[in-house]
Amino acid sequence: MTTTPTALARPVTAAIRAGYAWSVRREKQQAWLEIARMTGVIMRHFGPGQGPVAPAELVNLLHQPLGTWLPTDDPALAGLVILGDDGQLTDDTYGIGCDYTVDLLAGQEDPGRTWLPRWRTHRAEQVEQEAFKRLVSGSDEDYTTGRRFLVENPAGAQDAILDRQTALGLPPLVEFSPIPQDRQWQGRWWPCPTCKWPMAVSTSGHVSCRFRPHQATYTLLNGAGRSPRLQPDDGAPSAGRARLVDGAVCVAESIWRYVVVPGVVEIRLHDRINALPGITAHLYPGKDRFDIGVRKASEQEWLFTLDVKDFASPVALAAKINERPISAGHLVIPDYRRDQLLELGRLLPAVKVVTETQIYRRISRMAKEEQ
Ligand SMILES: [Zn+2]
Hints:
InterPro entries: pPIWI_RE_REase, pPIWI_RE_Y. By secondary structure, the chain is of the alpha+beta class.
C-alpha cells in the first residue's frame, strides 16, 4: 500500500509529534499521553491489524527509516529517521518533516497546543498568518518592512532588536524569548552565519544550525583561559563571535523554520535582482501575493513574478502546488536544492521551475541588453 503525500501528512505529523514528545518525556508530564494519542492517529491510518499498536512499538519505529514501516512513494520521506541514537529529533526532521506537517486536530481543542512547538502542530501558512496579522491592515510597504525585519532579526540583544523595531515604526509582531538551554554553552550562544538564529549546542561539543542546507557545523574549541571558538567542519562558513546569553532573545522555532529560513533566500534573491541597473524588484508585493515582483525601472508591468519554495522533498512540494497553485510566473528553488530541478520538471510539467541563480542570470542578461 502506498499513499499520496496529502494522505501521508497525518501519520507523518503524528510520528513527528510523538518523536518530539519522546525527546522531552523527562521534562514534560504530558509527553506520555501525547505519544499514546499519536499512536492512535497512526493506528487509524493503518487500519486494524497493521502498523504499530502500542506506544513503545511506535517509539522503536521512530528510530528507523520511515519507509520501512510507513509505505510512501517519496524517497526523501522514506529515508527519514525521526529519532536519533541520542533520543532527540534528527536534523532531517526539521527539513523533510516540516514539508508534511498538518493541523492534526483541526476544529477541536489540541491538547498539545500549549507545549508542542508550533511547527509540529501547524502548517507554514498558519504560522505566517499569525505572525503578520498585525501587518495586513497596514500598507503594503509596512507589510514588506515588517516581514523583512523579522527575517533579518530572528535573534540578538533584546535592546537592539526593540530599537530597530521602533525605528522602523513597526508594532510588536511575534514573541521573542530567551535563548533556549540547548542553544547555550556556558552563558554564550552563536548565530548561524546564514539564518542568524541560535545554533544548537550538543553535549559532545558540536555546534550546528538545525537547518542542514545552511551547512553550518562546528567543533567547539575551548582553550584554557581563552574565550570559546568554533572550528568550522569541512565546507562550513566561518562562524561569527560568541554572543552573551544574558539579555539576548530569539523568535520561536516555528517562526524560524517557516518565516526566517525561506525568507533568507527570498531577501537574498530580491536584493541581487534589485541591484541590477534599470531593474526594480519588489519584495512581498500586495502583502505577499507572491514573493518577488520584477519590473523595468521605467515601467509598471511586472516582467517576472517569482515564488520561492524551499522544500526538502520535491514530491511534497509538487503535491502542495497541485493543491494550491502559485500565482507567480516562476517557481524558484534555492541553489542548494538544484538537484530537485529534474524531478520537479517531471512532477509539475506546467510550472516553470528555476533555481535562484538561473533566474538571476536571466534577468541580469536582460538588464544588460537593455543598456
Ligand atoms: Zn541556519
